Amino acid sequence: MSTPTAAISRTNRVLVVLLLIVTVLAWASMIALTVKTYREAPPLPEAVTDPAGAVLFTRADLVAGKAAFQRSGLMDWGSLFGMGAYFGEDYAARALRVLGEEVAAVFIERGAAGEAGARAQMQAALRTIRMSEGTVALPEAVAEGFRRARDRLVAHYGRTRTADGYVAPAISASELSQLADFFLYSALIAVVPRPDGSMSWTGNWPPEPLVGNTPPAKAMTWTVVGLGAMLLGIGLVLLVYRLWIEPGSHESETDSAVLTAFTLPTPSQQALGKFFVFVALVLLIQIGAGALLGHYYVERDSFYGLPILDWLPFPFLRAVHVQTPIVWIGLGWIASALYLAPRIGGGEPRGQRLFVNLLFAAVLVIVVGAFAGSYAGIKGWIDRGWFWIGHQGLEYLELGRLWQILFFVGLAFWAGLMARALWPAMRRLMRAGDFFSLFRAEHLLVYSAIGIAFIYMFGMIPLTGIAPSFTIQDFWRWWVVHLWVEWSFELFAAAVMGYFLMAIGLVRRELAERVVLFEWILILASGILGTGHHMFWAGEPPVWLAVGSVFSFLEVLPLYLLVLEAIDQRRQIRARSGFAYDLAFLFILGSAFWNFVGAGVFGGIINAPLINYYEHATFLTMNHGHTALFGAFGMLALGLIYLALRHMAGDRITWSDRPGRWAFWLYNLGLLLWVVLTFLPVGLPQLEIAFTDGLDAARSISFYDSGRLWQWLRMVGDIPFALGALIMAWDIFTKTRAAIAVARTSRRMEAAA
Question: For the whole model, what pTM was predicted?
Answer without folding.
Answer: 0.93
